[in-house]
Amino acid sequence: MADMINIPDVYREFVRPEKRTMPKNDNVINLDHSDLMLSQKDALEDFETYKYLMDNAYAGRDYWSMQGVDFPACYAMIENKLKQQEYVSSTDFAQMIHDAFAGKIIDNHLGIATTVREDYFLFRGNKYAYFSGVTVEEGGGGYTVVKSENAAVQIGDIVACEEEQLFRTLAPQGKNYFYVGTRSWTPVEKLAVSVNGEVVDLALHQSRAGDFESLGDEYFKLTDCEGIPVVHSGTFNAFRSVPRDCGAALGKSLRQERNLLWVLAGNGGGSSDYPQHFIQELNGYANNATHMAWLKTHLTDFTTVDYDKPYTEWFFHLDSPVDLSESRFDGRLFTIINSKTCSSAENAIGYAKCVKNNLLIGENSCGMGLFGEQQAFFLRHSLINLGIPCKIFLSESKEGEGYTPDYWADSADLVGIVAKWIHNR
Questions:
Q1: Beta carbons of 358 and 349 less than 8 angstroms apart
Q2: Which of the chain's ends, N or C, has fewer CB atoms near its CB within 10 Å?
């Protein structure tokens, strides 16, 4: 007779009284554990899957190889570490993969995530702008200081520096103002320039435009600043039930505006369909002049029905160049961007540039888009989630460098200073 358990009356409708035994099953994983421990055999099996995906499903594989990244050597580094350990945690496994390629590959869409601890290992790289707080005016064959946050530099001083250390910024009508600074892949604290013929080390800070606070995650929110209409696009998230043409009616309604601000600063991306529809209706023409190549495989082609028949082929699309004569918006479009403008929001910048009277203002965008259309794959034993881009997008934006603004703005109040500049022109 089976052992019985004492069940309170209120549960008798839900639980049988017979006591049960539970057999062991090693295939069941408790995700409440702090990490997954893998045997060497399981880790090496997952590693073979990782190599297979990187070699066959990653759109950047050939590019980085031709740039000098030795994939076999990186693979060997990971494999040697795995073979030295009887057991390895999924987090340490992900760290090994990251360490082998970090600093060699810059791909802001490529990533590794552990399912259990939710650690993220990314291959990010960004060439940020660093400014000195010194603004100079061009004239008379030189550059004269008109604003300074640096006690060692006074208004009226003469600055001499390299051309790449000058960043055009907003200025009164008829004048040319520049920030003194630099761009770098790594943090920079000082910049040596000549001030009145003497070398001075200027303290630097990262561009403040990156501190801009968006109004949230709405796709197209219309406000105004000093009487100028402002469209805030905080997201183009593709995973919501939001129609892709949700901005079309708004774009059409703004066709007669003399000045219009479109805020893309802080927009992390999503689907490029949203900005395309908005610009099409605003401008009567939408072209972001972006070439696309798709590494189609049985793993990344959603039309594939037979996963047992592997295949791989490239599909190439060449876009037409922008024809500004097709632009129908007669007002001026001021597109506000920063280093947190990423991915499809950078495609939106491309669409903005097909408006004949468009200016980009803020700081460089993220540069997250040379490789895109990220596909998710799980490694069987470690449950590591791989985000692998399967497409190449060629535009003016360079990976990690982004689009360069026409006017730099070292301020978190991007909307306010642009609206004021427009009124003072």
A1: no
A2: N
